[in-house]
């Protein structure tokens, strides 16, 4: 299912993706830039196996700089922390939208277990 609408908010902190299903039914998901960044499907974040996945932290304030279409199956997102290698396919975005709350809960549990934070490390 291909999105009928993809929009970045004026503050660059959310991505809205709307999918039109057969029969006129639609789904619209608002995804935070932070969630997209920390769950990026890139090898840099996901590794080459589940054991290699990196826990990305300190990205509460990350924003979206640009969106690039990849054929008619995906987008590539450039974040303002300069991460830009993830290919966000339509099925990936749809699933992330549908499971947004569970993904946040899992992410926050991972952070807590690792003693990490959503806040960026500030240099003194």
What does it look like?
The protein has 124 residues and is an alpha+beta fold. The chain has one domain: NE0471 N-terminal domain-like, CATH 3.30.2020. The protein has helices at 33-38, 43-46, 90-98, 100-114, and strands at residues 3-8, 14-20, 26-32, 64-70, 74-79, 87-89.
The shape, in one word, is globular
Q: CATH topology, which one?
A: NE0471 N-terminal domain-like
| Mean pLDDT level | 92
- Rg, alpha carbons: 15 Å
CATH architecture tag: 2-Layer Sandwich
DSSP helical segment count: 4
First-last Cα distance: 47 Å
Please identify the top-level CATH class. Alpha Beta
User: What share of the residues lie within helices?
Assistant: 25-40%
- The domain count comes to 1
Give the strand order of the largest sheet, numbering strands 1, 2, ... along the chain. Answer: 1-2-3
Measured by DSSP, the beta-strand proportion falls in: 25-35%
The succession of helices and strands, N to C, reads EEEHHEEEHH
Features:
single chain, 124 residues, alpha+beta, 3-stranded antiparallel beta sheet, 6 strands
Produce the secondary structure layout.
Elements: E1 3-8, E2 14-20, E3 26-32, H1 33-38, H2 43-46, E4 64-70, E5 74-79, E6 87-89, H3 90-98, H4 100-114
């Amino acid at each position: 299912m291909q999105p009928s609408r993809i929009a970045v908010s004026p503050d660059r902190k959310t991505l809205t993706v709307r999918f039109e299903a057969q029969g006129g039914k639609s789904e619209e998901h608002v995804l935070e830039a932070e969630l997209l960044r920390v769950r990026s499907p890139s090898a840099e974040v996901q590794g080459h196996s589940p054991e290699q996945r990196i826990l990305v932290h300190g990205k509460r304030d990350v924003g979206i700089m640009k969106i690039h279409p990849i054929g008619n199956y995906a987008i590539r997102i450039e974040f303002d922390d300069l991460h830009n290698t993830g290919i966000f396919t339509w099925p990936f975005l749809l699933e992330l939208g549908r499971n947004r709350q569970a993904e946040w809960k899992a992410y926050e549990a991972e952070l807590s277990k690792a003693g990490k934070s959503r806040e960026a490390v500030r240099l003194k």
